[in-house]
Amino acid sequence: MKRKHFLLALVALVVALAAAAYMFRAPVLTGMGEFLVVTTPLQKADIIVALGGSKERRQDAVELLREGVAPRVMFTGNDVDKKDYQCEGITEEATILPPGPSYSTYDDANVVLKAAEENNFRSVIIVTSPYHLRRSGFIFHEVFKGRRVNLMFHASRIKAFQMDKWWKSYIGRKLVLKEYMGLVYYWVKY
């Protein structure tokens, strides 16, 4: 008899937890998305860097350049060349070619560090997608540890989905869950 009561209580608990999870799914999932978005107040900087991955990142970096937030811009990625800047209407004086290719956010951070050291930059604005801000901030701060460079982070626009409804689209689920896996990986690694 005791076993039957225990099983009934266990089933009731599981049903209650499932109902609560269903009822509170939107605020919990919204919070998971918002956790990834970590921006810093922007100040004048020496350079704006658009991390590779989307054209929106580049477009927003160029917009900041035109607003006069910094006098130079750099794009990262594995195949950046002068034409990328020309297509955005950026003068040669305002461009910095990356000192090497990058295939990951960790590579991006090392490329930006090298460019900062070569050009004596003391302040850098990193432009990346909102869902990528927390992980890129973590990586950049690790790579730049001990350097006297002020890092600022700016969220680019994204057209594929909205951060407050990321779980409602395939691309949103894919990107946000990938970021959480990346956070766990870098947390364990460092």
Offer a quick outline of the entry:
With 190 residues, this protein is an alpha/beta fold.
Task: Describe the protein in words.
- The protein is of the alpha/beta class and 190 residues long.
- The chain folds into two domains: 2-35 and 162-189, no CATH class; 37-155, 3-Layer(aba) Sandwich (Rossmann fold), CATH 3.40.50.
- Helices cover 52% and strands 10% of the residues.
- The protein is built from seven helices and four strands.
- It has helices spanning 2-23, 25-36, 55-66, 82-87, 105-119, 133-143, 170-189; strands spanning 47-50, 73-75, 123-128, 150-155.
- Strands 2-1-3-4 form a four-stranded parallel beta sheet, with helices on both faces.
- Strand 3 (123-128), helix 6 (133-143) and strand 4 (150-155) form a beta-alpha-beta unit.
- The longest helix is centred in the N-terminal third of the chain and has 22 residues, at 2-23.
- The chain is elongated and about 80 Å long.
- The model has no long low-confidence stretch (mean pLDDT 89).
